[in-house]
Amino acid sequence: MNSTKKTMLCVAMAVAAATGANAQNRSGYFLDNYSYNYQMNPAMGREGHGEFGFPGLGSLNLGVNSNVGLNTFLHQLPDGRMATFLHPDVSTEDAMSRFKNRMRLGVDVRENIIHVGFKGLGGYNHVSINAVAGAQVRLPKSIFSFLKEGIENKTYDIGRIDAQADAYAEIALNHSHDMGKILPGLRVGGSFKFLVGVGNVDINMDRADLELGTDAWRATTNGVAKVSLKGFDWKLNDDGQVDDVDMDNISGPNGYGMAIDLGATYEWKDFTFALAFNDLGFINWQHTVKAGTNGAHTFDSNNYILDPADIDASWDQMKDDLTDLYDLRPEGDAGNRVRALAATMNLSVEYALPMYKNLTFGFLNTTRMAHRFAWTDFRLSANLTPVKWIGLNVNYGVGTFGDHFGWMLNLAPKGFNIYFGMEHTLGKLAKQYVPKNLNAQLSFGLNFPF
Known about the structure:
Order of helices and strands: HEEHEEHEEHEEEEEEEEEEHEEEEEEEEE
Oligomer: single chain
Largest sheet: 21 strands, antiparallel
Strand content: over 45%
Number of strands: 25
């Protein structure tokens, strides 16, 4: 496989990012002494002291989301050894039963560079600079059926491979305000964000129909790749096909945009209701290069002849031809393109025990409205604040990426505030101490009151 195909496949399967993806620890959503729940609902401002975050470590969130795990690909053989689903001793029925029809993998990163919170303007304010990136890709089950079954079936539809990538910085100004004079118990908030885009990748291989025969095969494909990265370009082979990528001249920002967050909370008796819409905005990406198949592309191969005595060699020869499945050719500079961020809705209700207000129970629904990469999550939480400077949360959630257990411990004694937790706690490990489940999310932060 040539370097371009390797690069494209690695990007698509490992680090292709969802537009506007950003990791936030929902385990801290209901904790009163958690400094960053305003990033999920801008009305959740603090009424106490001011604070500032340790530069670069005020809030660090790293997450991986997937609806498959390593146990999807690894099987235990009768003799106890571990093998991939391609092993001949693993039946096709058993192998394919573990795959989802649409498999998804995502990686999210959100790092707080600067964070300052303070009272003023009749409410509470936050000023922050954050680095945001994320990853998500969708793959059809039929790709793995094709790899496992080979010529057992004559036709395969292995299209609809989608991937997107974003990386940008945001300068955010947040204000929350108590509206008790108008409606007791109501608090509203908003954030304005100025966005500086670093890069965006959008890959959409929406068609790949394979017809297999004993001595030849044919593929009809259609796909396009767009890269918005200053200084990026394609490298071509002698036939004018995209053969590699040129990243030697990458430099500087490549887009600008803006977004807003809007939120409200309402306290009624022992209940607190909240609703927020985040990342309502866009980035205008500048330098964009495009490559595609220029419509449907038909590829024929007769480079192999099936030899029943050596199926493996025949299959290997056919797989070599897959590198030419997508005949990507440059389509010039696509200029500027405006891409909306993936808006997120957070809807919640919290109940405080009347006999012990320091213990509350919460329900939170988070829905990412990202067109091809939308997802949703429902989460139940128990939140305990036995004393003002200790906050503890445990929660259980279900959603697009399966079920998961999360927790957070937030310590805020005099002089500093430190928290750590996981929104997706690592589950069972294989014998090689590799997690079978690919869902994991880790958060850490260090802040100082003043």
